[in-house]
Structures are given as C-alpha cells and as structure tokens.
C-alpha cells in the first residue's frame, strides 16, 4: 500500500490585485496563492485549513493540499492499493489545480528546484511554524534556506532514485552545474537533521528514537505555535521547556517534532522516501512503479 506525495512549484503568477490591496502592502504572489486555494475549495468541495485569518491548505477525506514555505503546492495523497489508483489521483489533482489556475493566469512547472527566481523573490507563506523553521535554519546559511523555499520533491517508497529522477538543473535562469541541485541543497542543512541515518539497518528503532529525542525542538503547538529553539525534545519530556514549564509532550507533539527532521528515509505512520525531484506527470506515476519493481525484486532475491 502506498501513500504517494506529489509536489509542484508555482512558477508563473499573473493574478490581478486591486489597488486597495496593493496599498496595504500585500504581496501579489501571496494573494494569488490564497485565491487559488479558495477557488479550488469552492469548485471541487475541499474543506479549508485555516491558521487565524489565513487559508494555508485544503483537505478532503484522507487527501490534503498544503502550501509549503516558498509557495510550493503539495498534494498529500491517501493510501491506495494499486498504482493505477495512485495515477488516477494525481491526474485528478492536476486537473483541479490547472482548471482553476488557468483562469487566474497561473502556471505550474514540475521541477525539483526553482529555476528562475532569486531567494529574495520567493513569496512567503503565512504559517507561524515556517517562520520558526526559517529562523532556525538561517544559522546554517543560504543553502539551508534555499532547501526550504526553493525545492520540490516527490516523496515515496533513494540515492538511486535521486539520480534517475534528477530534474533541477537550473537556478536563477542559468544552469547550476548539478543535475539535481535540490538534493545537493537539502544535504547542506544541519547534518544531524538530514541525510542517510547510519543505523538504518538496525533491528530496532531505539537509535532513531534517541536521535530524535536529542534534536532541537523547534516548536510546539498549544492552540498556537510556540518557539522552543535551544531545547531538545528530551528536555520537553523532562518538563524543562521555559515556554511551558511543567508540561510534558503528547503523542501529537512527538509527531510534530518528527516532521522537523529530514533524513532520506523518514518513518511516520508510513515509510517516506524523500530523494526524487519533482517532475512531469509521467515521472510522477513512474516513481512508485519503480519502487514496486525494486522492492519486489529484492523479495524475490531473498527467497
């Protein structure tokens, strides 16, 4: 069973903004992203996900659409039994997104890295936890921030997949010297939060838990996002977070903490492989097929 994730960077924005909105200093790109989500929700019966007065995503059953830090548009698919169902889901999502986007003059481009815009040109998404993550990653330099705002991956059941599906050769309108600069940039985030886990083939999950417990706890959510940088999740377990003294974490706090760690293989309620660049529809459907064949061959070899 698969949980297939599709992302595509919104690269062309041509929406119209009323002069009164411009006077308030609202970024045109942010307004277009918000209008895009509102129109998809209205036309295709998605439920809005709000943070304060801001729409930050959509959900429909076990599917969800989210805005990533740099405005990347991501579908989180539901668990499906066959590759045909997965491909149908992707096609449906693309149809809905493109139907509304074309009316707004918005275009989508499936690449692993923003090919033209500079980092300072990327529109921000009004999500508090992204602001906290950005503030934390700033100390690791521009590559870490670029990985947050300028990359798109297809997350699925990896270095081999990264090479086969490499699709991010441009930066700021010129060749960047890599076939997949997305993979290179992600690898330059804090080494303890990214890469291949050295204990990935251990028989138990003990080392994974230990590593995660020792990681800096970026934020917690208690009706609002609270910045907890500088303290580890182990400190949280010991009720030592200054922001919420005496409180201990819930299972939800643990799950939120795990999504701030970015290894090549991330264990959530399913196994999430994070190594392939975003690409065109044919490649999106080919990736899970690649892993089905690869894992099936491995099982055959075992027997």
UniProtKB/TrEMBL annotation:
GO BP terms in the entry: glutathione biosynthetic process
Coiled-coil ranges from the UniProt annotation: none
Recorded GO MF terms: glutamate-cysteine ligase activity
SUPFAM superfamilies, per database record: Glutamine synthetase/guanido kinase
InterPro entries assigned to the protein according to its UniProt record, in alphabetical order: GCL_bact_plant, GCS2, Gln_synth/guanido_kin_cat_dom
Domain of life, per lineage: Eukaryota
Keyword Ligase: yes
UniProt keyword annotation of Transferase present: no
UniProt keyword list: Ligase
EC number: 6.3.2.2
PANTHER family reported in the protein's UniProt record: GLUTAMATE--CYSTEINE LIGASE, GLUTAMATE--CYSTEINE LIGASE, CHLOROPLASTIC
Protein name per Swiss-Prot or TrEMBL: glutamate--cysteine ligase
Lineage: Eukaryota, Viridiplantae, Streptophyta, Embryophyta, Tracheophyta
